[in-house]
Write a structure and sequence with these properties.
With 112 residues, the protein is an alpha+beta fold. The protein has one domain: Orthogonal Bundle (Arc Repressor Mutant, subunit A). Helices cover 55% and strands 16% of the residues. It contains 4 helices and 3 strands.
């Protein structure tokens, strides 16, 4: 089995979080599990990666957070706002551009 989080994944956690939060409000650990699920376990990001990105996005105004009591404990639920949707659209466009470029390079003849 390959490495699930290679060094070239910079920016991917933010893209995945924004995409998942576009669909619905979620809390941190729920996002950890959702990333594993939607990527077929190809990507596994722990809370130590997820929470700093969530906090950064919230500080930057891309997410809103609300506290909610669940089973006697408080969870912080995150949701996307207009600024977050704009950020997601931009990141998705960048991802498609980079993915196309890498795919083209990998498919090019070795002596191109």
């Amino acid at each position: 089995m390959g490495q699930t989080n290679p060094p070239f994944m910079s920016g991917v956690p933010e893209l995945l979080l924004l995409r998942l939060l576009e669909q619905r409000e979620m809390y941190g650990y729920e996002l950890v599990k959702a990333i594993k699920l939607v990527t077929g376990e190809a990507i596994s990001l722990g809370e130590g990666v997820i929470y700093p990105v969530l906090h950064s996005l919230e500080r930057g105004g891309a997410l809103k957070a609300r506290r909610k009591k669940v089973d006697g404990r408080t969870r912080v639920y995150y949701s996307l706002n207009a600024k977050g949707r704009t950020r997601l659209e931009r990141l998705q466009g960048e991802w498609v551009r980079v993915q196309s470029g890498v795919s083209a390079a990998l498919e090019a003849p070795a002596n191109a």
